[in-house]
Here is the input.
Amino acid sequence: MSYILMNKDNGAIAVPNPSPLSPGGMPEGIEVVELADVDLDFAIEQAFREETPQTLDATRTETATPEDLAEVELFRGLEPQELAALASRCQLIYAIPGHVLTAATKLNTKVYFVLEGQLRLYPPTSDKRPTALIDVGHSTGLHSALVMNPSKHSVIAVEVSQILAVDATLLEEFAKRSHAFACNYNALLASYLRGNNCLYVGVRSRGSAGRASYIDELTLLHNQHWLDTMLPRLASRYRLNNRPIAMVAFAVDKHEQIVKEHGIGIGLRVLEAIGHWMFDQTRPTDILAIDKNRHFFAFLPECDLTAASQLTDRLKAQIKITPLSLAGKAPITITLSFGIAMLEQTATEGELLNTIEALIRQSIMQGGDRLSDTLEQKPDPDAVTEPIPPA
Here is the structure.
């Protein structure tokens, strides 16, 4: 395993040479970043390492199939024989969290299309916050591959991901042979010119329908559609592998009152700020989402309730010392109501979400700014109580 090391003076990246292919090992040329090196050193990271050590399967690379290409919009409308000819020259990468597709300052020749999971872009500096997200259906790498300049960012898988890797010269070559592909390729180039190759953190969308499918445009977190369609796949994967995943969820206390006092614009600004704040407070491997009720979620792979509780304690403390600056108004301080839970082998992801929602409501009913990890059982007024026999 190799690591990306941050130079404390100028943030430059140095990548040790990876070891050759060995049985069950990593193939030559594959690099893996230690995710703590691109994340803040929180207590949850220590718990993650000491209490629930992560066991990862090795990244593997296979020859792509026509079915893999058919999932990408770039190859829409191609004949089966054309897909087969292209697929034989493309790669399908099954990437573990931490897999480095492209290191900053190194030449890149490939375009990467995300079929499952998520990639993030990190600058070659000491800044540990990602500069961009590449979600399902998006791509990255085309610009640097075409101009043959060193990549400006490191591209790192932060979830178990499936990535289609295509050499840029192959795209150029096939565009000369197929009119249908040339049209699609022109559309891809235009998309990059508009900035739609990935979702930049801190920059609003320009109307891409595909981008909005899994990303909440206000907070940049996964949205309700992702919770409905992708979370079941994530939960199934962890159940099959018998691996733990904990969840931290919270609501903004008195958010409706903030909207009444300051207006809907300020209410949205609060949600937006918290969404961006969540990236700073969690690990790259934590999966973040917001649902239709404006409840925030952090799914913590390979973590238990102890780690979830530690993250909650940190979030509770940090939000109180992070006043939200509002245009033309005095900064406001908010509090959060939390719930935590674990994905059980016998429970569905729907039951997990229902439980966590109930825990959040319980925290709110008890005054907010608190954590609920167990649902309180209310006495049944219709229950018949048996008399206690005399001693």
User: Anything to note?
Assistant: The mean pLDDT is 77. The chain is about 30% helix and 20% strand.
